[in-house]
Design goal:
Blueprint: H1 2-21, H2 32-39, E1 59-63, E2 68-72
Antiparallel strand pairs: 1-2
């Protein structure tokens, strides 16, 4: 009985090991996903212009026919 348990455990370890050896990341295949993964940056720009001459962070200067104002940047 003990021999059967050891053989079954060894077979299970070999089976799991063979499946793990076949795992290949999608970024190494040269697909469009790998190109996107190389150009991805988790940093998002918080303010479009920073501190400008007239407007603070998150705003840009917009001018109409009679006046100028600071509008939120999108």
């Amino acid at each position: 009985m003990r021999k059967l348990l050891v053989i079954t455990a060894a077979a299970a370890i070999l089976l799991v090991g063979s499946m793990a050896a076949k795992a290949d990341p999608a970024t190494s295949s040269g697909s469009a996903l790998s190109h996107a993964a190389k150009n991805f940056s988790p940093v998002k720009e918080a303010a479009c212009g920073g501190y400008g001459r007239w407007c603070g962070p998150g705003y840009v200067r917009a001018c109409g026919p009679y006046r100028c104002w600071c509008r939120p940047c999108w």
